[in-house]
Amino acid sequence: MPLDSEMSQHLTDLIHPLTLGQVAHFRALGLRERLLTLPVLVALVLTMLWRQEGSPTELVRLLRQEGFLWCSPVQVTVQALSERLRTFPAVLFWRVLQDLLPLLQRRWADRQRPLPPELAWVQERYTAVLAVDGSTLDALLRKVGLLRGLEKHPLAGRMTALLDLGSRLPREIWYEADPQAHDQRFWPRIHAALTRGTLLLYDLGYTNFAHFQQLTQAGVTWLTRAKSNLGYTVVETLAATAQVRDERVWIGSGAERQEVRLVQVLVGTTWRRYLTNELDPARLPPAVVGALYAQRWRIEEAYATVKRLLGLAYFWTGSQNGVELQLYATWLLYAVLIDLTDAVAEHLQRPFAALSVEMVYRSLYYFTIAHQQGTATDPIAYLAENATWLGILKRERKRKPPAPAPLTNLAGALT
Length: 415
Fold this sequence. Notes:
- The structure is a single chain.
- Helices cover about 45% and strands about 15% of the residues.
- Helix 6 packs parallel to helix 12, helix 7 packs across helix 10 and helix 12 crosses helix 14.
- The chain has a nine-stranded mixed beta sheet with strand order 3-2-1-4-5-9-8-7-6, sandwiched between helices.
- By secondary structure, it is α+β, with helices and mostly antiparallel strands.
């Protein structure tokens, strides 16, 4: 269904001024003014993703009949639209995304809603709490351009996100056309995006003692899993119980040699081992380390949202530029959806994790119906008031009691 006037205005207020702010850069690139300008294309692509329209032919019909968001109806051909989507500089969409994210981050900071205790703890002690990870993009269609002659569907490349674990908004999105690009390839861009006082989480794929040292020298605190074959020398044992071991150790050799903490936590019958360059256990206690590292899963949830829910698993172009354009536009939509979900969480005074992002997205259909019937005017209030029957509030699942562990009552452990 078409977007209702309230949601259309919400998207217009957030994004349209940012598209106008890129007009000067648009002209600096030497691009010709046409019907399908940057503001028109951003409105078109966002609407296409929001309504899950994958056909340029259908988009042309909708554009002619309805217009999109802040754009009036306009008549273009399918060929013109397809060519524009294939060749329009994706960097302009990236710049709009880069302008939107700080705005939404400030909106998140101004809201009041419960946070997980481990995040509340570290956010009082670090300037930012971020996680980084990569994900391979899905296959391209072989029905377009030079891809027609290929025997197999080529993968669309690889993306890496630097995610704020509190707001769940990305700080940076990077793209590599090579789908086999290793996570290590993104280290230079990761370093450039970090500031002193940041706490960074990453998985074993980023293990590199030289980069660990570089982070430490830049004043960045890091936390990761320790490999099973890690070689180290114990300097001091800080804590040793039946369920926790906290040690200061030396890792690496030569210029890469560094003193870090090795924190081992018994979960069930398994010892989980973590490395961090935070040597002060008062700032990052063992009770926080394991629970905080589990928050790294938020970046996997973000990838599931952009791929499965918002359609980044399906590419309607075969060009690298077109892939990047769709990539940045999808993350634009993701950021708006996360901001909307967080506003509903504040209205309910519930943790963000208690809400389903997918059901917030799907429930906007019911708000549209209610809005047309004249029974609802505010999407946030409507979603919050009807959160239970709409499935926005997650159901509590019955689970087996967890094995005794120091993380069972984190809030109590930190007091």
